[in-house]
Each structure stands twice: as C-alpha cells, then as structure tokens.
C-alpha cells in the first residue's frame, strides 16, 4: 500500500491545501471519518492528506470502484471493497479486520454518497464501538483549503448522545452545511 509519496505531497502543497490539527500517529488503531463527501476531488485530496500525515490509512470503498480497469489501482492505494447492496453483516466483517491486526487505520465517508443526506449511515459508529477504536473526525474545508483533524473521540455506545458531538464538530467546518447536521442538532436538549 502506497502511503508516503513525494508526488502526492507536492501536489497537495501546490494545490494550496494544508493540514490543521494534530495527526494522531500515536494510536495503533482508529476509524477515520471524513465529511463532507461532496465531490470526486475528495479522493485525490485525501491521498495527498494521507501522504502528508505519513500514517498508514486504508479506506473502505464501494465494491464497484474495484471492478474494471481501476480496481487494481484502488487496492494498491490501500482500498478495501465493501458490498453495500445486501445485508451481509458488513459491520461485523470490518470489526473482525480490526481485531485481527495489531495496527490498523481506515477511513470512510459516513454520508455514503456525494449527495446531501438527512442522516449519516451509522455503520461507522458501530464499527468503532465494537472494534473498541477511537473515531478521528476529519473535515474537508474547501473554503480555506484545509484538512481539519479533530482530536480522537471515543464513542460511548450511545449514538443519540454521540451524534451531537459529531454534528457539532462538522458544523464548525466551513462549507459543511448539510441537512444531517441540522437534523442531528434539532434534537438537542
């Protein structure tokens, strides 16, 4: 898996992007979530950010990305294909991967699509809880060209409570004015 690349570093810097926040390289395992998932550009920007972070981060992607001529490239870049089309205990399978490794970091977009959504898919949350790994929230701030890294968050197991922490963080990232944030925070007491 390609992690560090001078080419990715150069492209990231020349395009004007920068990392903001501490990279949690001390953690042996984590689940990284990235919002917003708004454009195809998220992937190459993410590769640049991963290279600059100098951290072995894999990613989960829909299995269709791994079919056809680019499938090998996505695998080489650290991708794991997931089949979202059927009820196949995907959460359990991913938790098993975390349990089988001494060190493992993976990223996903909990929105599940580049369209605006009313709620995040919750699989990421239950993966983190069952694998007993912290969640690292990363915001793609397209307004200021910043990859914003929040300190690791340990989920409590109460999604209704924890979703407020997640929504509050992403509400602070410029350009992430998503329906799901409003829906999560409207329930706030």
Automatic annotation (TrEMBL):
The keyword Membrane does not apply. It comes from the Bacteria. Pfam families: Acyltransferase. Residues 31-143 form the Phospholipid/glycerol acyltransferase domain. GO terms for molecular function: acyltransferase activity. Pathway: Lipid metabolism. The keyword Cell membrane does not apply. InterPro entries: Plipid/glycerol_acylTrfase. Keywords: Acyltransferase, Transferase. This is 1-acyl-sn-glycerol-3-phosphate acyltransferase.
């Amino acid at each position: 898996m390609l992690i560090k690349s001078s080419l990715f570093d150069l492209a990231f810097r020349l395009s004007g992007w920068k990392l903001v926040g501490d990279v949690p390289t001390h953690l042996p395992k984590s689940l990284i979530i990235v919002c917003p998932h708004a454009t195809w550009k998220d992937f190459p920007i993410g590769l640049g950010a991963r290279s600059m972070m100098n951290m072995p981060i894999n990613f989960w992607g829909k299995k269709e990305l791994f079919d056809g001529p680019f499938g090998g490239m996505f695998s080489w870049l650290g991708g794991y294909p997931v089949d979202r089309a059927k009820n196949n205990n995907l959460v359990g399978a991913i938790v098993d991967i975390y349990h089988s490794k001494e060190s493992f970091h993976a990223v996903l977009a909990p929105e599940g699509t580049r369209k605006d959504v009313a709620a995040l898919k919750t699989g990421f949350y239950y993966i983190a809880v069952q694998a007993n790994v912290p969640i690292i929230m990363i915001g793609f701030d397209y307004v200021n060209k910043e990859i914003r890294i929040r300190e690791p968050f340990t989920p409590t197991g109460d999604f209704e409570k924890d979703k407020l922490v997640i929504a509050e963080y992403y509400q602070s990232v410029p350009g992430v004015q998503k329906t799901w944030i409003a829906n999560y925070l409207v329930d706030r007491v």
